[in-house]
Amino acid sequence: MKLKSLLIASAMMLAPASVMAADLTIGFSQIGSESGWRAAETTVTKQEAEKRGIDLKFADAQQKQENQIKAIRSFIAQDVDAILLAPVVATGWDEVLEEAKDAEIPVLLLDRTVDASEDLYLTAVTSDLVHEGEVAGKWLVEEMAGKPCNVVELQGTTGSSPAIDRKKGFEQGIAGHDNLKIIRSQTGDFTRSQGKVVMESFLKAEGGANICALYAHNDDMAVGAIQAIKEAGLKPGQDIKIVSIDSVPDIHLAMAAGEANATIELTPNMAGPALDALEAYLSSGTTPPKWIQTESRLYTLKDDNQAVYEAKKGLGY
Ligand code: GZL
After folding, report:
1. pLDDT band at 16, cuts 50/70/90?
2. Closest CA to 238 of 213, 216, 201
3. How confident is the model at residue 183 (pLDDT cuts 50, 70, 90)?
4. What is the number of helices (H) and of strands (E) in the chain?
5. In terms of Cα–Cα distance, which of 137, 145, 94, 156 is closest to 119?
6. Strands, sheet with 82-85, edge to edge from the N-terminal-most edge strand
7. Between β-strands 241-246 and 213-216, what pairing exists: parallel, antiparallel or unpaired?
8. Residue among 60, 111, 127, 267 whose CB has most ligand 1 atoms within 8 A, to mutate
9. I need a labelling partner for 155 at 20 to 30 A (CA). Which of 14, 43, 130, 287 fits?
10. How far is CA 231 from CA 20, 235, 236, in A?
11. Is the pLDDT assigned to residue 267 strictly greater than 80?
12. Which residues pair with 262 in a beta bridge?
């Protein structure tokens, strides 16, 4: 543990638990607000920091990696005690993470990973993104029960770890089931608007009758695609089956109406486990595992989706 962390640790060990985190100033470089899930993650992160009396410096990168790098450099200049980073893409972080390491400022990754040496971050709090894609694929295998099905795929942000891993997982999930064929796959950048635009292009290119299912890397793109499917005169959830990921309120509203079929839940609370790990590291030198995995669960039409919608709608999405 570096001198700076040692000094914080000794100060925190002398402080009563109630003020342990109160002295911390933490920088949070957030990707932006591209989806309902992202908005919820921001809300929950601010709540988790407030609960701990942490002074959170928030920076919205508007989906741009250069803005995240600028924010991290600003946090280093302010000599914050730690940095939370939700990395928009997986590559291009080595230099700025080295700068944070040289400044003895621990970096904790939220909801996405980076292609960089593990010694450049304290821990990554994410779901198993490959597993999420696999669950979606296996759901479709069961749903189609051997019947032929042409699948179109709305990928997340190009170069992001969820887009890479959810695509890989879905392909693993349908492997060996030749009745399922991915006929179109393109990024919708995790947004509703792009999800609608790209689904319109799929429908134009293929014709609705040739598309049996949509796999969207997040619910927001699926909600946008539902609009496109309706405008094409087709019934989403029936003419075209829809499976996506996040479990935001609006996908449960669509499922309650039979307009979507399945979603895999991603918790927006990545910050809670991250801040717990940070406090243990700073107060008693407990080094966390490099990966803290959050749980995922599948929701289908068998669930009470109206009740799930009601339960989730006030949670910052
Ligand atoms: C996945 C997360 C993704 C969400 C999207 O861990 O990074 O980013 O699934 C969000 O809704 O845009």
Report:
1. very low
2. 213
3. very high
4. 12, 12
5. 94
6. 55-60, 25-30, 82-85, 107-110, 123-127, 291-294
7. parallel
8. 111
9. 43
10. 55, 9, 10
11. yes
12. 243, 300
The protein residue with its alpha carbon nearest to ligand 1, atom 3, reads 162
Ligand 1 centroid to residue 162 C-alpha, Å = 7
Is residue 4 very low, low, confident or very high in pLDDT (cuts 50, 70, 90)? Answer: low
Look-up: residue for tokens 């009396």? 53
User: H or E element: which one contains 290?
Assistant: none
**Cβ contact 312:249 at 8 Å:** yes
CATH topology of domain 3-127+268-286: Rossmann fold (3.40.50)
297 is written with which tokens? Answer: 């669960």
What is the separation of C-alpha 302 from the centre of its chain, rounded to a whole number of angstroms? 25
Residue extent(s) of CATH 3.40.50.2300 domains in the chain: 3-127+268-286, 129-266+300-315
Q: Which of 12-16, 166-170, 179-183, 227-231 is predicted with the least confidence, judged by mean pLDDT? A: 12-16
Whether the CB of 34 sits within 6 Å of ligand 1: yes
Residue 45 · residue 110 · CB < 8 Å: yes
Residue 138 and residue 69 in contact, taking contact as beta carbons nearer than 8 Å: no
Whose CA is closest to 253, among 162, 188, 317?
317
3-state secondary structure of 265: strand
Q: Mapping DSSP to helix (H, G, I), strand (E, B) and coil, where does residue 110 land?
A: strand
What stretch of H or E contains 33? none
Per the structure block, which two tokens stand in for 303?
A: 């669930």
Residue of 35, 62, 89 with the most ligand 1 atoms within 8 Å of its CB, for mutation: 35
Report pTM: 0.94
Q: Does residue 78 carry a pLDDT above 70?
A: yes
Q: What is the CATH T-level fold of the domain 129-266+300-315, as seen in this structure?
A: Rossmann fold (3.40.50)
